[in-house]
Design brief:
The protein has helices at residues 62-93, 100-123, and strands at residues 2-11, 14-19, 40-43, 55-59, 132-138. It starts with a strand and ends in an 11-residue tail after the last strand. It is of the alpha+beta class. Strand 1 and strand 2 (14-19) form a beta hairpin.
């Protein structure tokens, strides 16, 4: 995630940021879209001098992006492959002849299970980190009313 935003409030190392529109936002229908002006919180790990009205660059930490990629892409793919190969032993244990349909069913079942597990974990147990302010693009001391929305 790399985005631009405008600081609305800044206190104790946490910035309340409103996303800024970009060309890719024109036809977006996402409920968290910048067009909706939804505030979000971002940390300031570089201890930049931030003030309301500053336009800043927001990024997710690289470690979080790597972890997200592994869990959201690699785990379901590995689950699907495991489902394909586990279908034969399960069919034999149930006294049935393994077929391609069973292998496809195992693949889809494990793909669905791993995807569902990732979804549940991301909504319940995982402590998601906040995005980080990594740079000040435009410094404006007049307050957040000057944000180019």
């Amino acid at each position: 995630m790399r985005d631009k935003g405008c600081i609305v409030r800044y206190k104790d190392g946490i910035a309340s940021v409103i996303p800024l529109l970009s060309d890719t936002c024109i036809n977006c229908n996402s409920p968290t879209c910048a067009k909706r002006g939804t505030l979000f919180l971002a940390t300031n790990p570089r201890n930049l001098d931030l003030h309301p009205g500053d336009v800043v660059k927001i990024e997710a930490p690289a470690s979080i992006q790597l972890t997200q990629g592994i869990f959201s892409l690699l785990l379901p793919i590995l689950g699907a492959v495991a489902g394909f190969f586990l279908a034969d032993p399960v069919a034999i244990a149930l006294g049935k002849e393994p077929t391609e349909a069973m292998r496809a069913g195992g693949l889809l079942l494990m793909l669905g299970l791993t995807t569902g597990l990732i979804f549940l974990l991301s909504k319940t147990l995982l402590k998601l980190s906040k995005p980080q302010v990594t740079a000040v693009i435009h410094n404006d001391q007049t307050g957040f009313e000057s944000c180019p929305l």
